[in-house]
Amino acid sequence: MDRKRHKIIYYALIFLLLMILFIFNFLTGGNLLPWNRKEFERPLLKSISIDSSDVVTIVLDNANKRKPIGKIYDLDLFYLVPVFEYEENENEIIVKEDISEYKEKFTEDRQYDIGIKWYGGHLYLETIYKEGQFTVLDEHYTDKI
Asked: Which of 9, 82, 87, 104 lies at 20 to 30 Å from 118 by C-alpha?
């Protein structure tokens, strides 16, 4: 056989194996492959709130194993702020930041991007500031960059 036919047969076999894998995965209910689409599409952000003492509390879902979060080092909330301490358990990660020094700079009905960065990834939240609270419009997750 010449090289061209060899290459065609090689790609056809790979395609056939992949098709068998995906069909088997579909028939077994999606448990064959290590990712689960519903779990991956589940948002990481559980809540974001500002209390009466101007502390922003961001609660992230730490139970989602398809979207791991590493050691958080930065919070981009109007200003880039280093994060030295945060609470973490098996279900949640809670990041708190005092914004009393610059809360008056937030404008009503304006869109703000909030970024949470860890080594190897980040979470960007598109929010709108309305009535003294942030409302999340969209969430973008990146890991292993």
From this structure: 104
